[in-house]
Automatic annotation (TrEMBL):
Major subcellular site: membrane
Domain SH3: 1-58
SUPFAM superfamilies, per database record: SH3-domain
Keywords for the protein's UniProt record, in alphabetical order: Coiled coil, Membrane, SH3 domain
Pfam families: SH3_1 (PF00018)
Subcellular location, record wording: Membrane
Key word Coiled coil present: yes
InterPro entries the UniProt entry points to: Endophilin_SH3RF (IPR050384), SH3-like_dom_sf (IPR036028), SH3_domain (IPR001452)
Name listed for the protein in its UniProt record: SH3 domain-containing protein
Membrane disposition: Peripheral membrane protein
Amino acid sequence: MSYAKAIFPYQTGVIGDLELQVDDVIEVLEQVDVNWTRGKLNGKIGLVPCKFIQQLPTVDIDNSQSLYIAHTDYRSDHEGDLQFRR
């Protein structure tokens, strides 16, 4: 499983294309050709132009682990709290 992050907004009226906002993280399903990737975002599957996304590093996890992606930054002043950036 691989993921990519939108580096530019992509607004289209074309049926079958995904619309993107900057920092959206999509699941990459297939590299269609050098210009297009098929991905999944918020339960929708569609095409996105490769120049509008940046591949994210892959992470190997086994079936006993879960992978979570932050949609917003979280900072805490409480000692021991996990902090993260999206």
